[in-house]
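B., you asked whether I could sanity-check this one before it goes into the benchmark set. Here's the sequence:
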Amino acid sequence: MERSQTSQGNRMSTVLGRRLGGELTKHRLAAGLTQGQAAKVISASTGKIARMESGWVPMRDPDIRILCELYEVSDPAAVGGLLELARVDRERRKAKGWWNDVSVAPAMKEYITLESAATAIKTWQTAFVPGLLQTESYVRALNPDDAFVAARLARQRRLVEDPPLRLRTVVYEAVLRNLVGGAKTMRGQLEHLADTASRPNVSVRVLPFHAGAQLGMGCGFNIISFADPGAMDVVYMEIPRSQTWIEGGLEAAAHDDMFERIAEQALNEHESRAFISNLSKEL
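And here's what the prediction gave me:
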């Protein structure tokens, strides 16, 4: 399911809300039930069920448990995953994070909100170094606006918080050879990339030119996880003048498979650090 950020008045259809609503909708349809039947068991209106399934309103744990019982979803892991997703969504809706005090585009603000709640991110990049791994000079070469730079650098705290975000990165060789900001800036960026890759929660791998053409080379993407791998993944992609979310389902699974296939063709972590270090010495 592909969506962009949606708002209506003071309400917000959030990515996590839609992800949760989509799962409940899938279970309801599998049980052969209508929204009206679902509404009756939680003493709500059909309209509320529609808003819940569309991600417009936060969901209460008792409602989720009752609906799971109605839909005959009895697997504790499945129910627990839905409850955890609902908890994270409620917290994100009322969060007063630093991102609310800086000037960033609404779509990016939603991404930062999700990033702050994520447990793990996989990112495949074909044009630029991932934002979580960029140096200040590199960021300024992309966008000199002070608010943009401050927001980009503040996001990087996730890598050193307790618990730290787990980050798996695969970058195309062209990313490393693109002299963003000139040779000095890029040398510092490559050195920083190799240094950060030594952290236990960060993996950086390089897909070299000699690996040949791969699926996914037309557009980079981030896979954001909030629980066990694949349990509640959403995919974020930036395309010219727009952003796209893929909220679970077969498309999200396909992107995860694509990431793993690309990673299989990349240099291993040790080889990648050596490759990056050698490139930095050439500048």
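One thing to flag: Residues 1-10 have pLDDT under 50 and may be disordered. Otherwise nothing jumped out at me.
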